[in-house]
């Protein structure tokens, strides 16, 4: 009796129990044939490639399915044993797609990458009456989605709401994120106390990992040498980039913004009848590196560290004497949460 050809699948999902697994197994078995064993294991974090190969043993194929925190996309990291190489694909889904539809489309797309592998191709023609191992009951089949394995670096998008085999012009619905964070701006080696405040930002997805971002923020601080309070309001417009996925839940993001700033310094001393206010407008920019961690399918917490630069120094005088300078460059610390919708 011939041993079944094995396709080993590792699933990394933000959900405690991945709801697409049964329909994924069924669809993959329909494409690979009745003697192909589709075995699924759930992992807490991605395996190094060498460890995945060791764990897979003689399997014809090894697959890692890494779901995004928003469940709008899944990274398919495949090893095709007959070709001795790894292949990556990104499959995207519409926001209203049912889990069973996502699982079936994903199963067709993954299995079609292995359908021509010698071991699986032979298995499909050997024992037509043998059922696949560990596969849920069959549902009506759909034609497989073809995802060629000739270009490992190519990234394709599929929509579960479109006919299998098609690549729609808009594979996903518009994505947006709302961010709220606490902000601290220390002045190392300067003569200002740290500024503390909060920011509110809205992001719109442009392409796969690129975002358009707008922000409004306000901060308060002190200038001890001038016995003055400092107030600052900022508006920002910039670009965000999801630079690196550390795991299914964690990622590294980089953003850069153009800033418009209103700065006010208010001074009151014992010889002043009333508080003296001085203000000015400034342009500037910032660059912030953040690390985000998904705590649910649509929510993440993040921390950021960056640099904020104003295109001009601000000199503070009291009674005609310079007592402080608001510098060009200052560091910036962010701590907040993000909600996708």
List the SSEs and their pairings.
Blueprint: E1 5-12, H1 21-32, E2 36-42, H2 49-56, E3 61-67, E4 73-80, E5 85-92, H3 99-114, H4 118-126, E6 176-185, E7 195-205, E8 210-223, E9 228-245, E10 250-267, E11 276-294, E12 299-310, E13 314-318, E14 321-326, E15 329-340
Parallel strand pairs: 1-2, 1-3
Antiparallel strand pairs: 3-4, 4-5, 6-7, 6-15, 7-8, 8-9, 9-10, 10-11, 11-12, 12-15, 13-14
Helix pairs in contact: 1-3
Explain the overall architecture.
It is a single chain. This protein is mainly beta. It has two domains: 5-126, Rossmann fold, CATH 3.40.50; 176-340, Porin, CATH 2.40.160.20. Helices cover 13% and strands 48% of the residues. It has helices at 21-32, 49-56, 99-114, 118-126; strands spanning 5-12, 36-42, 61-67, 73-80, 85-92, 176-185, 195-205, 210-223, 228-245, 250-267, 276-294, 299-310, 314-318, 321-326, 329-340. The strands form three sheets. It has an eight-stranded antiparallel barrel with strand order 6-7-8-9-10-11-12-15. Strands 2-1-3-4-5 form a five-stranded mixed beta sheet, with helices on both faces. A two-stranded antiparallel sheet has the order 13-14. Strand 3 and strand 4 form a beta hairpin. Helix 1 (21-32) packs parallel to helix 3. The relative contact order is 0.13.
């Amino acid at each position: 009796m011939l041993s079944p050809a094995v396709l080993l699948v590792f699933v990394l999902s933000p959900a405690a129990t991945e709801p697409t697994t049964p329909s994924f197994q069924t669809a993959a078995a329909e494409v690979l044939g009745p003697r192909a064993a589709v075995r699924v294991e759930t992992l807490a974090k991605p395996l190094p490639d060498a460890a995945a190969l060791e764990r897979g043993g003689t399997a014809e194929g090894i697959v890692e399915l890494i779901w995004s925190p928003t469940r709008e996309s899944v990274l398919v990291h495949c090893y095709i044993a007959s070709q001795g190489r790894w292949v990556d694909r990104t499959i995207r889904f519409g926001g209203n797609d049912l889990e069973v539809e996502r699982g079936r489309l994903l199963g067709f797309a993954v299995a079609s990458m292995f359908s021509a592998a010698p071991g699986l191709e032979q298995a499909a023609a050997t024992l037509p009456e043998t059922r696949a191992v560990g596969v849920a009951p069959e549902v009506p089949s759909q034609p497989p989605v073809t995802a060629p394995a000739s270009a490992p670096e190519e990234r394709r998008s599929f929509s579960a709401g479109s006919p299998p085999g098609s690549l729609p012009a808009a594979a996903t619905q518009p994505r947006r994120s709302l961010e709220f964070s606490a902000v601290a701006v220390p002045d190392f080696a300067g003569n200002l106390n740290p500024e503390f405040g909060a920011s509110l930002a809205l992001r719109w997805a442009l392409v796969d990992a690129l975002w358009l971002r707008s922000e409004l923020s306000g901060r308060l601080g002190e200038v001890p040498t001038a016995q003055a309070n400092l107030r600052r309001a900022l508006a920002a417009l910039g670009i965000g980039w999801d630079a690196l996925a550390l795991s299914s839940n964690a990622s590294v993001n980089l953003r850069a913004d153009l800033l418009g700033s209103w700065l006010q310094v208010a001074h009151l001393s014992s010889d002043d009848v009333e508080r003296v206010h001085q203000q000015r407008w400034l342009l500037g920019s910032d660059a912030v590196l953040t690390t985000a961690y998904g705590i649910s399918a649509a929510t993440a917490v993040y921390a950021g560290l960056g640099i904020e630069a104003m295109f001009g120094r601000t000199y503070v005088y009291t009674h005609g004497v310079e007592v402080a300078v608001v510098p060009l460059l200052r560091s910036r610390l962010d701590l907040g949460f993000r909600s996708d919708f």
